[in-house]
């Protein structure tokens, strides 16, 4: 992209000469003959450097107008490089201009080589400062938690995760926006990072922002940045998340939490690929890929007029659901081993093993908190274990998410058993207190157990779906997915 240079001089011949020289060097040039025109053009365009004469109409030699202009420009945009030029150069004038914000001082008639060298030097310095400022803000605001659930490699032994990763690998090569759905704690943020790492944008920044953590009145400032003085507490200019993610990927987590009043502003950026910082009239172009994630039912929110349908269509060029942990049975024990390995290294402790009973308990649990819950549980178990084996009592799994049944003592949970016949499966006389007596049997598969729990729990709550889902530690959407999976009415 060409750098834009604004040149200001009341002499039309000087403007013409400078414009010809700079355009030959590949710069985009904006010529101005007075200070009013400078203000207008600066508001219209994003300028990378200014070359300004020191004298306009007030007099011809003092440089007072030029000093006032430099001071004003520097106060507006401290990072904007300014080169001043004058035919009445003095040491005092040069020193005064540099003190109030100019970056270089060149005497007329100028040397083309000297001027071009100065321009390149100032543009390189400004670019380096912007990059440093961007990464400094990115690291300060978006520092990711040093936790294995966020930063580890992806464990995928289950068919459903292998299929998802294959799909993501193909999609990563494109620039289409991707919407990841699924329950909390399923690893959506890690998968978003994975997509970025596999994409052609992998050398550019990956910027993650939790939309639920941004208040409505700070939305524009956080996303688009602000200039100094834009509002009471704006003591310095600040770049927003879109600018941080330039040429890279912007991950919008907790998408459904974007206030309705701000959704139109986000839609405009996605449609037109441009935005303005708060307090600035300059339109900035942006080249950012959007990956978003939510555990909410966006279609339901659209029906309730809490989420814009046009924004939804912009974000879900492709929509993929991330499976919950109970749908990834083959991944539970490998994930547990991975987390124990990570936490053992982190805390410099010997890595314990899981007993067969502990493994069976992990496999038998419902995991309402998904992978995040598993990681925190094993971090705690590492410290509770006094030996080299972790037993079930050191896992402290809540009994309510076992469905009040005895955990299996072996891995027969994963074996293929014959399903119950329809008469037995639907016989209400087999239930007591909302749970089936067969749940203590080792003859049932996980799917059979889950089907029976869904039926009995709904019966126990007299058909109330919300209470049933809550008692199972599921969201409503998670509950309905399981109903559809087993073709239950």
UniProtKB/TrEMBL annotation:
The modification 4-aspartylphosphate is found at residue 53. InterPro entries: AAA+_ATPase, AAA_lid_NorR, CheY-like_superfamily, Homeodomain-like_sf, HTH_Fis, P-loop_NTPase, Sig_transdc_resp-reg_receiver, Sigma_54_int. Residues 4-123 form the Response regulatory domain. CDD domains: AAA. One of its GO terms (molecular function) is ATP binding. It holds the Pfam family HTH_8. Keywords: ATP-binding, DNA-binding, Nucleotide-binding, Phosphoprotein, Transcription, Transcription regulation. SUPFAM superfamilies: CheY-like, Homeodomain-like, P-loop containing nucleoside triphosphate hydrolases. GO terms for biological process: phosphorelay signal transduction system; regulation of DNA-templated transcription. Residues 154-383 form the Sigma-54 factor interaction domain. This is DNA-binding NtrC family response regulator.
């Amino acid at each position: 992209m060409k750098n834009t240079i604004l040149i200001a001089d009341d002499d039309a011949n000087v403007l013409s000469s400078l414009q010809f020289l700079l355009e030959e060097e590949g710069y985009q040039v904006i010529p101005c003959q007075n200070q009013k025109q400078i203000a207008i053009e600066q508001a219209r365009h994003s300028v990378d450097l200014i070359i300004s004469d020191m004298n306009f109409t007030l007099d011809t030699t003092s440089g007072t107008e030029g000093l006032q202009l430099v001071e004003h420009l520097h106060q507006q945009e401290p990072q904007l490089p300014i080169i001043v030029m004058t035919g009445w150069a003095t040491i005092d004038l040069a020193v005064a201009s540099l003190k109030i914000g100019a970056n270089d001082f060149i005497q007329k008639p100028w040397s083309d080589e000297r001027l071009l060298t100065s321009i390149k030097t100032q543009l390189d310095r400004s670019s380096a400062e912007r990059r440093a400022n961007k990464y400094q803000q990115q690291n300060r605001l978006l520092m990711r938690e040093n936790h294995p659930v966020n930063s580890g490699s992806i464990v995928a032994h289950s068919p459903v995760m292998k299929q998802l990763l294959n799909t993501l690998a193909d999609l990563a090569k494109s620039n289409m926006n991707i919407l990841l759905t699924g329950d909390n704690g399923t690893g959506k943020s890690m998968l978003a990072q994975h997509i970025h790492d596999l994409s052609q944008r992998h050398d550019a920044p990956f910027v993650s922002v939790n939309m639920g953590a941004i208040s409505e009145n700070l939305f524009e400032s956080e996303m688009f940045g602000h200039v100094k003085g834009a509002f009471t507490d704006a003591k310095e200019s600040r770049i927003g998340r879109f600018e941080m993610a330039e040429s890279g990927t912007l991950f919008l987590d907790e998408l459904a939490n974007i206030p309705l009043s701000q959704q139109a502003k986000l839609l405009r950026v996605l449609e037109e690929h441009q935005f303005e910082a708060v307090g600035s009239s300059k339109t900035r172009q942006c080249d950012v890929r959007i990956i978003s994630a939510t555990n909410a039912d966006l279609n339901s929110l659209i029906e309730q007029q809490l989420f814009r349908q046009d924004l939804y269509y912009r974000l879900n060029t492709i929509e993929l659901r991330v499976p919950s942990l109970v749908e990834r049975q083959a991944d539970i024990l490998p994930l547990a081993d991975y987390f124990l390995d990570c936490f053992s290294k982190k805390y410099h402790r010997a890595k314990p093993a899981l007993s067969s009973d502990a493994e069976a308990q992990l496999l038998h649990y419902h995991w309402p908190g998904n992978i995040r819950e598993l990681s925190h549980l094993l971090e705690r178990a590492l410290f509770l274990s006094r030996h080299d084996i972790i037993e079930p009592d050191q896992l402290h799994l809540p009994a309510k998410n076992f469905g009040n049944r005895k955990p299996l003592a072996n891995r027969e949970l994963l074996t293929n058993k014959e399903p119950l016949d329809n008469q037995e499966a639907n016989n209400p006389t087999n239930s007591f207190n909302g749970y089936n007596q067969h749940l203590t049997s080792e003859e049932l598969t996980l799917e059979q157990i889950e089907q029976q729990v869904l039926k009995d729990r709904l019966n126990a709550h007299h058909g109330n779906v919300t209470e049933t889902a809550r008692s199972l530690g599921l969201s409503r959407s998670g509950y309905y997915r399981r109903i559809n999976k087993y073709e239950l009415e």
